[in-house]
Design goal:
The protein has 346 residues and is α/β, with parallel strands linked by helices. Helix content is 31%, strand content 23%. The protein has an eight-stranded mixed sheet with strand order 6-7-8-3-9-10-12-11, sandwiched between helices. Strands 2-1-4-5 form a four-stranded antiparallel sheet. Helix 6 links the parallel strand 7 and strand 8. Helix 3 packs across helix 4, helix 3 packs parallel to helix 5 and helix 5 runs parallel beside helix 6. The longest helix has 18 residues. It is globular. The N terminus and C terminus are likely disordered.
């Protein structure tokens, strides 16, 4: 994969990441299979950029984000954060690295302790990872509340006294407490009203500009990802389908699944909405516990070839910065696929 950011440093490097959850059955709870939530995923994130991670519900986006931060123990693969391997790092090494990497969770209500005040929630990372005095810690808490647009007078209130947007701001302030370099935003606007979503996204962008943050922005809202992301990773059933710069991927999607996903985005203009050429996928998403042979998308792909049902395509750079896993673009397809697609006796 070419370095599309020139000399910019790679902050996060994910290589062949797998996150399989065992399936246990029977009286003895023997392992009889695995849910392949994330299956051989690779991507890089450069310092200061926002990488969008998109795909339909259940494709493994959130699991991937949590595995990258080692909130889950990866089944296999490599995760390098700022030059240090964390995929299988011991607990003490991981604890030392925690201040560099934080997360903003999807549900702002479920991710906040209802028995703790706002000041306690925001100050908890400081208590755990720093030796600040009570006075300095309170000053830092007020500073963080100011940064995310929360009134200091609310410091001793509890999460249930706030709106959804305010609760998400509390979560963002907590994530910023230790001056992290890298933040995973796991659908941070999914549980919010549309009017509040823009405020939260604008806040994230403003904080990125001021603090030099790097984001992995997970979402199924393709319009919002187009607004905030620099590059986009498209996932389907635990695997990466396509990676590319935002504008190139949205204007000229290469993978058939990316085309179908983008064609489902609603058009604000009624005339364009009625005349839009939409790709309607047939059938249901296969189970990650029993993915299809060959390409994961072969059972629903409108342009599937015989080779797609037999061979899993590899990631290949087909244009500068454009990486796709599809037999339409792989060298191995060429004559084999063409001959296989021809009717008998042709």
């Amino acid at each position: 994969m070419s370095d599309t950011k020139g000399a910019r440093k790679k902050l996060v490097e994910v290589k062949n990441l797998k996150m399989h959850f065992p399936i246990r059955t029977g009286l003895l709870r023997r392992v009889t299979g695995a849910v392949k939530a994330v299956d051989d995923v690779s991507f890089d994130i450069f310092e200061g950029e926002t990488l969008g991670l998109v795909g339909e519900s259940g494709c493994g986006k959130s699991t991937c984000g949590r595995a990258v931060l080692r909130l889950y123990e990866p089944t296999a693969g490599s995760i390098i954060l700022d030059g240090e391997e964390i995929a299988h790092a011991p607990f003490d090494t991981l604890r030392r690295l925690r201040p560099k990497m934080q997360m903003v969770f999807q549900d702002p209500q479920a991710s906040l302790n209802p028995r703790m005040t706002v000041a306690s929630i925001i100050g908890e990372p400081l208590s755990e990872h720093s030796k600040m005095s009570s006075k300095d810690r309170l000053a830092r808490i007020y500073e963080l509340m100011d940064a995310v647009g929360l009134n200091r007078d609310f410091a001793n209130r509890y999460p249930h006294e706030f709106s959804g947007g305010q609760r998400q701001r509390i979560g963002i302030a907590r994530a910023l407490a230790l001056n992290p370099k890298f933040i995973v935003c796991d659908e941070p606007i999914a549980a919010l009203d549309v009017s509040i979503q823009a405020q939260v996204v604008n806040l994230l962008e403003d904080l990125q500009d001021r603090l030099g943050l790097t984001y992995l922005f997970i979402s199924h809202d393709l319009s919002m990802v187009r607004h905030i992301a620099d590059r986009v990773v498209v996932m389907y059933l635990g695997k990466v389908a396509e990676i590319g710069p935002r504008d190139g991927l949205y204007d000229d999607p290469l993978h058939p699944y990316t085309r179908a996903l983008l064609s489902a985005v609603p058009e604000p203009d009624p005339a364009s909405h009625d005349t839009a050429n939409r790709t309607i996928l047939q059938g249901d998403v296969p189970s990650p516990a029993n993915p299809p042979k060959g390409c994961n998308f072969s059972t629903r792909c409108p342009v599937a070839m015989p080779i797609c049902h037999q061979v899993d395509p590899t990631m290949r750079e087909v244009k500068p910065g454009r990486v796709v896993a599809c037999h339409l673009y792989t060298e191995t397809t060429n004559e084999t696929a063409v001959h296989a697609a021809e009717p008998a006796g042709a």
